[in-house]
């Protein structure tokens, strides 16, 4: 039976998606320009992965605390707090790059990353506002908004290169100084989301007459704990898949910028390559979400992880622009499948009052994986070469598949023992 989505929910979802479309360009700058900015200011290629690592660190630091804030005080307050921090961070990044100040640049990227990752509670808000069978699709709409914003980034970078050529400014600093206008617009849109998505999630029957929320095996808001999530096999595997996909992608995004710059491609060409990667991450998010709702979370999540393995191998073992770009596109597409499916699964398994913390825990693990693996990437490339880094990224993504196999074997043994 189809579920009719109320006009109020559609309006709120559209506001979140539009907000993402305004604010999404900044993350593209971190991944596309960040490694080059760090190398240009520090003079050390071994630090190439630092910008991506800082985004991982910011996600690790902020995701659970902001989830707790939104669980206690509502989703909008946490999101707006995040966007305010991102606004300050982007200005610091732009001036730090122009002044060639490495420590200020590091601080700015960290502040910006914490703000943008806090604003990812929009995904939690999206899952709050719809019944379980529509959560994958809701996440897809929010992700598509992010992609709409990322389309702007190559144009902004190209404009910056043109302005820098005539003004003498740093072409990697100017995009950051243009970004605050978009962040402010995104914050205004969030302000108009009413009522708060958490309130909607706790009263879904009021908006969807007759709907009854199914049980939540991973725990209630009153007794939520990270250990509870990790003891429950479905949520443990969801967190592992998301962390592995994020870690794999962190390595590949650093590799993409370094390889293309090494072969003499312009900043605009690099930005376009990262746009194709972002297309994989976000452009197909709605069909991925619908597929999650139709065939189940696991049947989308695990193939997504397999896809990141194939993409990482292409980036590490090929040398042409088209092949590298296609490989990084596959990594993005695989990440999208594992991220949407794992987020939807976690939203299904916990109550509304604990959902911010549950998805925040998922993001924290992903941030930790991104932090460690992106820091390893620079030295790994320097001492072992690009192919070794690509193969390492593929091995990272294989870990949750082995975990899932182990769970299945253990379950089979238990069934066999009971039957005996």
Overview of the molecule:
The chain is mainly alpha-helical and about 425 residues long. It has one domain: MFS general substrate transporter like domains (Growth Hormone, Chain: A, Up-down Bundle), CATH 1.20.1250. Helix content is about 85%, strand content about 0%. The chain has 19 helices and no strands. Helix 4 packs antiparallel against helix 6 (about 120-130). The chain is globular. The relative contact order is 0.16.
How are the SSEs ordered, and which strands pair?
Layout: H1 7-23, H2 25-42, H3 50-73, H4 75-99, H5 102-118, H6 121-128, H7 135-150, H8 152-167, H9 174-191, H10 197-201, H11 204-207, H12 226-231, H13 233-262, H14 267-283, H15 285-295, H16 298-317, H17 321-349, H18 352-384, H19 386-419
Keywords for this structure?
single chain, 420 residues, mainly alpha, Growth Hormone, Chain: A, 19 helices, globular
Brief summary:
The chain is mainly α and about 425 residues long. The protein has helices spanning about 5-25, 25-40, 50-75, 75-100, 100-120, 120-130, 135-150, 150-165, 175-190, 195-200, 205, 225-230, 235-260, 265-285, 285-295, 300-315, 320-350, 350-385, 385-420.
The sequence of SSEs as H and E is HHHHHHHHHHHHHHHHHHH
Number of helices: 19
Helix content: over 70%
CATH superfamily: MFS general substrate transporter like domains
Strand content: under 5%
Head-to-tail CA distance between termini? 41 Å
* C-alpha-based Rg, rounded: 21 Å
Principal-axes geometry comes out as: globular
Mean pLDDT: 88
Q: In CATH terms, what is the architecture?
A: Up-down Bundle
Low-confidence stretches: none
